[in-house]
Design brief:
Chain B: It holds the Pfam family TusA. The complex is a heterodimer of chains A (159) and B (76). Chain A is an alpha/beta fold and 159 residues long. Chain A has helices at residues 15-30, 69-72, 83-97, 103-112, 121-126, 143-150, and strands at residues 5-10, 34-39, 116-120, 139-141, 155-158. A five-stranded parallel sheet of chain A has the order 4-3-2-1-5, sandwiched between helices. Chain B has 76 residues and is an alpha+beta fold. Chain B has a domain at 13-29 and 47-76. In chain B, strands 1-2-4-3 form a four-stranded mixed sheet, with helices on one face. The two termini of chain B are 20 Å apart.
């Protein structure tokens, strides 16, 4: 197969939304796609050496709540301190029990398969982020260089 | 089930890990060799079919046996 290309823009920095870019990129790479993930705004969290990704039930009515928690904790209850940490811990445990890979593992598989990870220079500056906190191999670029790759891609996703 | 050269147990793993592990194992094998993958993820049935079609590796056999899914993939 002649190399196909997949371009992904990752804009979200929560645990649940970290999955689609890494699942699709690692799978595409296994299928022979040349793949690039352009991380911008909160998507920059995906590039941290130690990503502290959490999941929040706030503003997310589609999130299935364990143990009937939605009944006991109506919307305001979900804003209580510690709730986000607890939901994150429960989600991670659930994922592990279902054989779902961790974000770190999927990211490692992406890097092994030579998926290119690009950080948006503008948002790195905007948030005063320390690039020492990012994993090795990250490239820094802007919208124009994204289009150089995305313009020739077969699939382009905004996540 | 036909003969195989290498076996990969992907039981308990969920999408996309069975495919990624299979790809990694195939990378280390030579052309014509056969990989036997065992998986429990029901989604892997369609995924291995699609994997074979897209990568050119041949899916020689795909079957369910005792609650597990078995795949024989010949490296192209």
């Amino acid at each position: 197969m002649e190399d196909k290309k997949l371009a992904i823009i990752a804009t979200k920095g929560s645990l649940d939304w970290a999955y689609p870019p890494f699942i699709l990129a690692s799978t595409a790479a296994a299928l022979g796609y040349e793949t690039q993930i352009f991380c911008t705004f909160y998507g920059l969290q995906l590039l941290k050496k130690e990503p502290k990704l959490e999941v929040t039930p706030l503003g997310n009515p589609g999130m299935p709540m364990p143990l009937g928690m939605d009944k006991w904790f109506p919307v305001l209850g979900l804003a209580l301190p510690g709730m986000q940490g607890m939901m994150t811990a429960m989600m991670k445990k659930k994922m592990q029990s279902k054989g779902v890979a961790s974000i770190e593992e999927l990211r490692e598989l992406c890097l092994e398969a030579e998926v290119k990870l690009v950080a948006c220079q503008m948002t790195v500056d905007l948030f005063d982020m320390d690039t020492d906190d990012f994993i090795d191999g990250v490239e820094y670029a802007g919208a124009t260089s994204f289009f150089e790759f995305a313009g020739e891609s077969d699939i382009c996703l905004y996540i | 089930m036909a003969d195989f050269d290498q076996e990969l147990d992907a039981s308990g793993l969920n999408c996309p890990l069975p495919i990624l592990r299979a790809k990694k194992t195939l990378n280390a094998m030579s052309a014509g060799q056969v990989l036997h993958v065992v998986a429990t993820d029901p989604g892997s049935v369609r995924d291995f079919d699609a994997f074979a079609k897209q990568t050119g590796n041949e899916l020689m056999e795909s079957k369910e046996d005792g609650g597990k899914f078995h795949f024989l993939i010949k490296k192209s």
